[in-house]
Amino acid sequence: MRPTMKDVASAAGVALKTVSRVVNDEPGVHPTTAERVREAIERLGYSRNESARMLRRGRTATIGLVIEDVADPFYAGLSRAVEGVVIEHGCLLLSGSSGEEPGRERELVETFCARRVDGLIVVPAGDDHTYLRSELEAGTPVVFADRPPGAGLDVDTVLADNVGGARQAVRHLMVHGHRRIAFLGDDPAIFTAAQRLRGYREELGGLFDARLVSMRPPSSGVIGDDLARMFALDDPPTALFTGNGRYTVTTLRALGGRRVALVGFDDFELADLLDPGVSVVAQDPSWMGRVAAEVLFRRLRGDVGPSEHLELPVRLVTRGSGELSPDQAGARG
Amino acid sequence: MRPTMKDVASAAGVALKTVSRVVNDEPGVHPTTAERVREAIERLGYSRNESARMLRRGRTATIGLVIEDVADPFYAGLSRAVEGVVIEHGCLLLSGSSGEEPGRERELVETFCARRVDGLIVVPAGDDHTYLRSELEAGTPVVFADRPPGAGLDVDTVLADNVGGARQAVRHLMVHGHRRIAFLGDDPAIFTAAQRLRGYREELGGLFDARLVSMRPPSSGVIGDDLARMFALDDPPTALFTGNGRYTVTTLRALGGRRVALVGFDDFELADLLDPGVSVVAQDPSWMGRVAAEVLFRRLRGDVGPSEHLELPVRLVTRGSGELSPDQAGARG
DNA sequence: CTGAAAGCGCTAACAC
DNA sequence: GTGTTAGCGCTTTCAG
């Protein structure tokens, strides 16, 4: 069906190996012979079968990326950055979304491994990664991004400063006079959510009040109810800290124009165009992706040093919503 | 290094083929034997080498997806939908972003083809796809999404109703009393931009005024200048039609709170939370992705009917900005 | 500079 | 039920 090297070889009247040399730009082929081979390649429309090459060489020039959901802007940005580095290194990217399901994460990782990806970048959904043990022993480098692996796995990790970022957000609100600061975030089973809760709690100290904390899976759709419950308290919150981009948006929608001080974790498009502009603790998903990919390729180049645990700083961006004072709260904007 | 079927076979005291049978759930293996093989697989930590399998079977169970940029919400949504269908069919997705560069699009497509992807979904950046000819002849199905292929290529295509959507947007603004409607969009070399300009022009008829059209590459950063120029006219626009999500956002930012009627092509997160809410002609990127993937798998299943050319309807979503009357324009919001 | 032979790990086709 | 053989298309090794 498709022409193979053998076909090209007989078309050009040379041996298989000579074609291989030409295709791979190996030295030691007479220019005239090379030209004849190239002409045959062109004429037959030959293109090297990478599957065969991979099998023989034992390298696939493929990196596997498991994220939570490409449609989420954070992971989309991360993916794009990973892709950039991967392409720069002459590799291709196999990617998949776990949808926050540990089973799917594992399935994806195992499928990628069966394809013998040269390396793996994983944003884990689960917290048991013992299934990766044999792959690591086989020498495949793995980098965890955004969230660390489950206990007992010593691999490179690139995280954001979740605790510090949360503390920064809460401190900012406190500086602006708030004492009743609510936290709305994801299920604490998720690492980043738990870390941000921790930072929130640490910074709040004695002001912490469990009634001002709502952590629900994003699908539950009850953030509005939780908010209503909090606002009905004798001492309602005057400020909100939302645990990630999705919650910030959901919360803004649930507020329906009600003016409350708010700082969100994660930056998002149009945060500056809302009224007031939404103050956020911004992560840089591209940076995280790039760093994770670079660590991976360093390993691929043979770096066998101890595992790296990077924590990327985050940045408070003030746009108005986080600078409202407690007495400005409550009014309908 | 890694255990192979041969290793498993000798560990279990059976022949290679028996291991293959067990691994592939082929019938005709005695339960006891199968159990022994499974035990050996478990003990050695064996996992089938898919590269070898691909080479032998001639199918890679891989689909290639070329888009413009994963970090763009439209393409992120499309990717996610494609991924869903691909996984459902037991395949994996190789994806890459062309960054709107025809050269990169071609490179990606050719690399994917060298890996012998079973099928290809392409959002083209260029308009010459003759390089795909040989691949199509080799039997690889290709589906174009969002934009059609260059001349002379008869393949399945899934597009949105760009002309109709643009007409709908302009008509809506006209119904609300506007006669001076500007169009801000992408370089007309891009299919969707050209189609939307066409719809805009058709619907506007005699009211068309070239001075109210600005089509620039998104990188140029001069949308604000163009807008200023238009507003400085004797008969400035009272309404804007923006050609895609990115332009809508850039335009809103450039307007800096100035109240002008506006309808944008493409829906976007938070469009409802801005003041006024942004009216849009909404496409459904997930739908487009799903449909494209389904058409592809139908081909893969052997459908050899004439090429399909699907046009997905779009939907006008009114949120306020598109319902402002001409005399409400000009004020600072 | 060029070529022949072996074999990567698997599956297909056919024995037994 | 099970095993043997050939070979997918390429790279590696070694021989000329």
TrEMBL record, chains A, B:
Gene3D superfamilies per the UniProt record, alphabetical: 3.40.50.2300, lambda repressor-like DNA-binding domains
Keywords per UniProt: DNA-binding, Transcription, Transcription regulation
Residue stretches making up the HTH lacI-type domain: 3-57
An example Gene Ontology molecular-function term: DNA binding
Matches recorded under SUPFAM superfamilies: lambda repressor-like DNA-binding domains, Periplasmic binding protein-like I
Keyword Transcription regulation listed: yes
Superkingdom, natural source: Bacteria
UniProt cross-references to InterPro entries, sorted A to Z: HTH_LacI, LacI/GalR-like_sensor, Lambda_DNA-bd_dom_sf, Peripla_BP_I
Protein name stated in the entry: LacI family DNA-binding transcriptional regulator
Protein's organism: Nonomuraea insulae
